[in-house]
């Protein structure tokens, strides 16, 4: 079960000093019972990658990147740029980007294709709103997001898909019930094909990580707030690691 992913996105937090401290904390560990990854802000990518070193089992991801390789796109960074800074994964389509920064399914797809073109592992975030779930349309909505994200991606290219229902994310969120996560894992796997590992994200913490990691069809956890302290991240990785070992 070493294929079980446990990662954290730092979103818009951490100074360089804080990012390096976290990287030192995870870098100090040699044996991992899970596949660890961290997703720093763009400002800290190079520092974290340098601190970890190229042989580290801890993968580094970027939180977003533009679909073009270079050009006049003020404020953006490209996939080759984040790869140059040390990222080997690319988070794409987080609901905060979809909601606040106009990220559409079309753009998500362009970014997935750019990541694949440059050999980065896409970490595609999908998930429905509370309204969509209440109306009974969650499965169809999420399947559509997955199919749109993967359009034109050759079969067999590995991808990670994080199921992150919008109502489960952040300080006002509540984690999805394991049964709901299990149902959605089936929906996502069917829409994506066999190449995808399905992760769960949204209010994961030390108290619920093991229960969520046990959900059939779930191949990883993607954590925000509860893993921003390196000791907390390591505790969750260990708890899940005990389960999957
Ligand atoms: P959270 O964030 O764990 O803080 O709810 C999860 C996410 O946005 O991936």
UniProtKB/TrEMBL annotation:
Q: What is its main location?
A: cytoplasm
Question: Which PROSITE patterns does the entry link to?
Answer: TIM_2
Q: In which pathway does it act?
A: Carbohydrate degradation; glycolysis; D-glyceraldehyde 3-phosphate from glycerone phosphate: step 1/1; Carbohydrate biosynthesis; gluconeogenesis
Q: Which Pfam families match?
A: TIM
Compartments where located: Cytoplasm
Stated EC number for the protein is: 5.3.1.1
The entry's cellular-component GO terms read: cytosol
Q: Name one GO biological process term.
A: glycolytic process
What does the record give as the reaction this protein catalyses? D-glyceraldehyde 3-phosphate = dihydroxyacetone phosphate
Q: How does it assemble?
A: Homodimer.
The UniProt family comment states: Belongs to the triosephosphate isomerase family.
Its name, as the record gives it, is: Triosephosphate isomerase
Which source organism does the UniProt entry give? Occultella aeris
